[in-house]
Design goal:
- The complex is a heterodimer of chains A (823) and B (130).
- By secondary structure, chain A is mostly helical.
- Chain A has three domains: 1-304 and 621-646, no CATH class; 415-586 and 602-620 and 663-711, no CATH class; 794-823.
- Chain A contains 32 helices and eleven strands.
- The termini of chain A are far apart.
- Chain B has 130 residues and is mainly alpha-helical.
- Chain B is built from six helices and no strands.
- Chain B has helices at residues 4-8, 12-21, 26-46, 50-72, 74-77, 87-117.
- Chain B is elongated.
- The chains are: A mainly alpha (823), B mainly alpha (130).
- The interface between A and B is medium-sized, with 13 and 18 residues.
Chain lengths: 823, 130
């Protein structure tokens, strides 16, 4: 039952890529010919991480056997949510890590459904006043699962990339960059740099997953952002790539600003950013239990029901608190007691609930940026300028899923109103992105919009209370979307173009790629035999549909969400099979492209196969209950098992318990909806692109305005350009004009005045000072000239001068000193 | 003491008469020294020949020497008078020594001047004129 080594194992798995990053940073170019071995260093690091994660996962499963959740048992929770569940977020400090962890483990095993989480700090960055920033861990089943998923996908992609990036081993001629001289750009290869950034990214991603507090999440959140910037802008000489990198970074900053507001709201009111309870050592040496966010918002005493924490109530009622404190003569303790007496009353009046709403919304803002949700989704399609392995790892499977992961991790703190906002944002995103994907012709852009759309699914699932459904889809999506991206990379590698209109008929020449991509497409549309078996997407998408349907039934006002999900499923299957048919089926459209097509090397194919296998089986639940859904169920935040009600901004909301969506009628409806919509989408795609019964051009012509609207991506980029970029540029040019006309003029004027003053100074110097000096010199000169005349050169005259002079002096002296001489 | 004040008083005739009638005293020596000195100066001022000028210089120096010796002589001044001891004689000897050295240098200059100009006319010696 001792699983206290799990955080250590995961910590090592987290730090190994950092070591690889540092090694490649300093010694990259020296690693073999053109840094060829950098790939091995990075791959070895990530494989080590994978192995460590697997060991940790093994220990976790040993401590918490994954079993089928007994839905019947949950019936009690609906009545009394506190019975039988335990949310024991243990603090493993320094000395007592072992004992606490063991303690938590026992309880976790005893409880059914929820397993305990391990939490603690490795290192305190800063401690002063209430503020405590630390590098810590929060490990539950979700963390372990994410570690395995991220490490596995990253391993596949590292191996794939060592083949895909081989061009970078030599000097590269970039045909997409034309220099001013009209030649193409020649530059040295950047093989090591790619793997260096990839390693740093893995480190940062693991950091988000393992983070024990929001401050640490934020640190690594920004780190993955900068890694994404490095990797999108990998071909930094291409204008499009550097613009896309900047766009991604700036758009993410917008979201992160909201996240900072959320962090401030939480810290300002509650004084902690830690997820779990922490034990701090007070000045007198006693251990002080400091409750974390989860137990503040959902205290165990009230059965983990969501409530506005005391800190927020006091913060919002600061005036009243001050009044009571001032009026109370009994000293600070008595005043605090009086305030504490009032808190429940204030809370029931709704004081402080806006603060909790803002905090949740702020954190979600960060997730909107990172997970490319409306309105900040515009960066993700542009991010496809990066190399395809990056698109697969960073911009589809892991980093963009970090937003969904954070919403899942932060779920206990989110109020029903925030969840509704999340659901709507997700619904709008999935619909907009899916429609754009319908008409995109760039193979990677189709996948990019598909990613945005699927992220919308996850957000929507979380927003309608489908905690397991959303995160389940996150995991399955990570597998099949990275698979799809790697397949598209394989195609691009062979065709040297992204344009699907130039492809076609590749199934014959690239059977492995075509086969694995078909698996990926089937997985994403959720193919399966209803109620019997299916690919991974079948299970996760079903769960989302079922939960959304359940939510729509409970809240008829929001039944449009179910329409979005069902419509999205149809669109998804249409654009995915449109992509597959256009690329692999039929006859080659461009013989120039088709001539050179070849299957990719084994180093690129094997990762495809590995991911394809997982894309098929990831959703399965083995006899005995071992499966992703049940594993996630272990990590379900306490207090979210049962149906709950709440909401004050958007009216009263009912959040049906997730297990209810597994019940007969709802589940059957959802499954059939998913199946029929997916089938309809595939059939329509086949009609248009495989059997060519309906001409796509004709359809496009019939709905010309709509087609143009979609092909221009809903004019969102243009809209943002008009609303934000143009004014920003306008203000910039105004500022530049002000700088040039006013500030520069001012400075020029000052310089001109100084120059004039200097002119006057120079005149004084030249005429007065120099004149004085010159006059002195002239006088001396003239005196010399005059005295020179005495120097006649006649010796006898000199003698006469001497004689006459002497006599004259003698006479003079005798005249002056007559009396004395006479005496 | 007849002397300077007498001359300054412009009574020259009685002085000369006194000199010719009085016993030999310091004043007589001073007269001789003055004549020598003035002769030397006149010689320096009037001779164009460099050697003549040198001779004038010797006369001037010796005129001075006579004065030194006369003032220092206990015999002329009388015992217990304001004697200068042997200081005057010593200075006279020193002057003779200097005159010898000066004569050597001056003759050397003259000789060189002759070498360069084939003359010893000092009116021609104006090369250093500014």
């Amino acid at each position: 039952m001792d699983h206290s080594t799990i955080p250590t194992l995961l910590g090592l798995a987290w730090l190994t890529p950092l070591a690889s990053f540092v090694a490649i940073l300093f010694f990259g170019p020296k690693m073999g010919h053109h840094g060829k071995n950098a790939a091995w260093v990075a791959t070895a690091a990530i494989v080590t991480s994978l192995l460590l994660s697997l060991v940790a996962a093994g220990q976790w499963f040993a401590a918490h056997p994954v079993v089928a959740v007994d839905h019947g048992g949950h019936g009690e929770h609906a009545v009394a949510p506190s019975s039988g569940t335990l949310f024991a977020a243990e603090t493993a400090g320094h000395a007592d890590a072992h004992d606490d962890a063991g303690h938590g483990g026992d309880h976790g095993h005893a409880a059914h459904g929820s397993a305990s989480a391990l939490a603690g700090d490795w290192y305190t960055l800063y401690e002063g006043g209430d503020l405590r920033l630390s590098i810590g861990w929060y490990v539950d089943a979700l963390t372990v699962l994410m570690f395995v998923v991220v490490a596995f996908i990253a391993t596949c992609i590292h191996i794939y990339a060592s083949g895909y990036m081989h061009d970078e081993l030599h000097a590269v001629t970039d045909h997409e960059v034309t220099l001013r001289s009209g030649e193409h750009l020649h530059r040295p290869g950047r093989f090591p740099r790619f793997f260096q950034a990839l390693s740093l990214f893995c480190f940062s991603m693991f950091g988000i997953v393992i983070a024990g507090n929001l401050a640490m999440v934020f640190i690594f959140w920004e780190l993955v952002g900068i890694c994404s910037w490095f990797l999108i802008g990998f071909y930094s000489e291409r204008q499009s790539a550097s613009t896309a990198a900047n766009k991604a970074f700036i758009v993410n900053r917008v979201g992160d600003f909201g996240m900072l507001i959320g962090l401030m709201a939480l810290w300002g009111a509650l004084g902690t950013l830690s997820f779990a309870d922490t034990t701090a050592t007070a000045a007198d040496g006693t251990a002080v239990e400091r409750p974390g966010l989860f137990s503040l918002v959902r205290p165990a005493a009230s059965g983990h029901a969501l409530q506005v924490p005391d800190g927020m109530v006091k913060f919002a009622a600061a005036d009243d608190v001050a009044r009571i404190t001032a009026a109370n003569a009994g000293g600070p303790d008595a005043a605090a007691a009086a305030v504490a007496h009032e808190i429940d009353g204030w809370r029931s009046k709704g004081v402080g609930r806006w603060l909790l709403f803002i905090a949740g919304l702020g954190i979600f803002c960060g997730c909107v940026g990172k997970s490319a949700q409306v309105p900040l989704f515009v960066w993700l399609p542009d991010a496809m300028e990066g190399p395809t392995p990056v698109s697969a790892l960073v911009h589809s499977a892991t980093m963009v899923a970090a937003g969904v992961y954070l919403v899942g991790r932060f779920y206990p703190v989110l109020t029903p109103d925030v969840l509704l906002v999340i659901a709507y944002i997700g619904g709008i995103t999935l619909f907009i992105a899916a429609t754009i994907a319908l008409v995109a012709n760039d193979i990677k852009r189709v996948l990019a919009y598909s990613t945005v759309s699927q992220l919308g699914y996850m957000m929507l699932a979380l927003g309608v209370g489908g905690w397991v459904a959303g995160l389940f889809h996150l995991v399955t999506h990570a597998f099949f979307k990275s698979l799809l991206f790697l397949c598209s990379g394989s195609v691009i590698h062979a065709c040297h173009t992204n344009d699907m209109r130039k492809m076609g008929g590749l199934a014959k020449t690239m059977p492995w790629t075509a086969g694995t991509m078909l698996v990926g497409c089937l997985a994403i549309v959720g193919a399966g035999i209803p109620f019997v078996i299916g690919l991974s997407g079948y299970y996760s998408k079903d769960a989302i549909l079922a939960q959304t349907l359940s939510f729509s039934r409970a809240n008829p006002a929001h039944s449009i969400l179910f329409l979005a999900v069902a419509g999205g499923a149809f669109l998804t299957s249409f654009y995915m099979f449109r992509l597959w048919f256009m690329t692999f089926a039929g006859e080659p459209r461009d013989h120039h492209v088709a001539e050179h097509v070849h299957e990719s090397p084994p180093v690129m194919v094997w990762p495809l196969v590995a991911l394809a296998v997982l894309a098929v089986v990831a959703g399965w639940t083995l006899p005995g209950g071992f499966g992703l859904a049940n594993l996630l169920e272990q990590a379900r935040p306490a207090g979210t098992e049962a149906t709950s009600t709440g909401g004050f901004v958007f009216g009263s909301l009912v959040y049906p318990a997730e297990y209810e969506s597994h019940v007969g009628a709802i589940h059957a409806t959802a499954t059939m909806t998913a199946f029929t919509t997916a089938l309809a989408g595939v059939l329509l795609a086949a009609l248009m692109y495989l059997w060519k019964i309906v001409s796509p051009a004709l359809v496009a012509g019939m709905f010309k305005p709509i087609y143009a609207f979609l092909a221009n991506r809903w004019y969102v980029d243009e809209l943002y350009h008009a609303i934000f970029v143009t004014p920003a540029l306008g203000i910039a040019s105004l500022a530049a004009g002000f700088d040039r006309t006013v500030i520069d003029r001012l400075i020029d004027g000052v310089a001109w005045s100084a120059r004039q003053l200097a002119g006057i100074d120079a005149w004084i110097d030249r005429n007065l000072v120099d004149g004085l000096v010159n006059a002195t010199a002239t006088c001396t000169w003239n005196a010399g000239l005059w005295l020179k005349q005495l120097q006649t050169g006649r010796l006898r005259q000199y003698v006469m001068f001497i004689v006459v002079g002497t006599v004259a002096l003698f006479v003079l002296a005798s005249l002056v000193f007559r009396t004395s001489l006479a005496g | 003491m007849i002397g300077i004040s007498g001359i300054a008083g412009g009574i020259v005739q009685p002085c000369i008469a006194g000199l010719l009638s009085d016993p030999v005293s310091v004043t007589h020596y001073l007269v001789v020294g003055a004549i020598l000195f003035v002769s030397g100066v006149a010689c320096m001022a009037m001779k164009r020949n460099a050697l003549g000028v040198l001779m004038g210089i010797e006369l001037v120096l010796n005129g001075a020497n006579v004065n030194f010796v006369a003032f220092a002589s206990p015999w002329l001044q009388g015992e217990g008078a304001r004697s200068l001891g042997l200081d005057g004689q010593v200075i006279a000897l020193f002057v003779i020594l200097l005159a010898a050295a000066e004569a050597a240098v001056a003759l050397a200059i003259t000789l060189n001047f002759y070498n360069n100009h084939a003359t010893v006319d000092i009116d021609r010696a104006d090369d250093l004129k500014g």
